[in-house]
Specification:
Layout lengths: L6 H17 L4 H14 L3 H13 L7 H14 L3 H14 L4 H13 L3 H15 L9 H16 L6 H9 L6 H4 L13 H17 L1 H4 L5 E5 L2 H10 L10 H17 L5 E5 L2 H10 L9 H11 L4 E2 L26
Parallel strand pairs: 1-2
Antiparallel strand pairs: 2-3
Length: 338
């Protein structure tokens, strides 16, 4: 089942898996893990956490308790239980699991919450725990750890070491890892040269492969926010979108109203993603679509959310408003609306 299926579909699939687990107790662990994943996708994170607890408390214990704990920590952090998630992650790092997946989940959880230094330390600990030296043969599960470590170290602007060289050697994509993980790389070349455009599309497709795992995890239902300068540039380049954004003030008002409507309809896990013209044009190129097509805007927002770019909504009333005005949310867009 694809991640963009409806919440009801995910709940139905989770219930089916739970019934199957009751009929086939010998397969209980993988079935409950799949059910928990569907519950997370449906936004029922509390129930997913309960399934992880059930597995950890079961007799006999799960075959891979470290993996279950890692999944539980990632889930807890996503629905506001950061302190408990951190405690589980600290315990896992101290336990030095031998399972690459558990390490990867907690390292990516830290990365997705902008804990880049901690994520890099976790990736490095995992690599040095599971691999004796860069000269040894690398098991397939550990290759993802090397790639993730390389990505985080590029974000931190750290120099290459022997493990990064090994990651470069193992990478089979058409685009080198240094370029793929370059945080400053533009998504669009702004060139009319077909060869250059094709090269950029190849880069984007290669980058998409790095996010396939992330796309299978829950991500917010996100609404797109354009900063003033970006919106002006967007409309100058694509005046066809003026009907969507008559003014920047109207854009901000409509954004808050849309989020409130989604919340009133019971949609969980809402967020805001900030767009830029270069990344939007690159996304359009990867979809073989025109940036002037307004139907592409929600798809772009969903992709940014899947990449971990979303800011949760609503903020606390005393926190700065999401619009960037500097005022408290309760005194800005969080106030009463007509």
């Amino acid at each position: 089942m694809r991640p963009d299926d409806t919440s009801a579909d995910h709940i139905t699939e989770a219930e089916r898996l739970l019934r199957t687990a009751a009929q086939y107790p010998e397969d209980r662990e993988p079935l409950l893990l799949r059910a928990a994943a569907h519950l997370e996708l449906a936004g029922d994170r509390a129930r997913a956490s309960t399934l992880y607890d059930d597995l950890l408390a079961a007799t006999p214990p799960p075959e891979n308790p470290h993996l279950v704990k890692a999944l539980k920590a990632a889930n807890l952090w996503e629905y506001g239980h950061e302190a408990e998630a951190r405690a589980i992650i600290d315990g896992l790092r101290a336990a030095t699991p031998t399972d690459a997946a558990a390490w990867e989940i907690i390292a990516e959880t830290l990365e997705s919450h902008d804990e880049l230094e901690s994520s890099e330390v976790t990736f490095t600990t995992a690599v040095t725990t599971l691999l004796r030296s860069p000269d040894d043969e690398v098991p397939y599960p550990a290759q993802s750890l090397l790639m993730g470590r390389h990505r985080v170290r590029r974000l931190l602007a750290l120099p290459h070491d022997d493990w990064d060289v090994l990651a470069d050697r193992l990478h089979r994509g058409a685009v080198p890892l240094d370029e793929l993980h370059d945080p400053k790389r533009l998504w669009s070349l702004g060139s009319d040269d077909p060869a250059e455009l094709q090269a950029e599309i190849a880069r984007l497709r290669s980058e998409l492969g790095s996010y396939r795992t992330a796309l299978s995890r829950p991500f917010p239902v996100a609404v797109l926010l354009w900063p003033p300068d970006e919106l002006a540039e967007l409309l100058a380049a694509y005046p066809e979108l003026e009907a969507e954004y008559p003014t920047h003030e109207a854009h901000l008002t409509d954004l808050e109203a849309s989020l409130r409507e989604l919340a009133a309809a019971g949609t969980p896990n809402l967020g805001i993603v900030q767009g830029t013209v270069p990344s939007y044009e690159a996304f359009a190129a990867s979809e073989a679509a025109s940036p002037a097509n307004p139907d592409l805007l929600p798809q772009y927002a969903t992709t940014l959310a899947a990449r971990g770019r979303a800011t949760p909504w609503p903020p606390a009333r005393t926190s700065p408003c999401w619009c960037g005005s500097g005022a408290a949310y309760g005194e800005c867009h969080g106030g009463a609306q007509p």
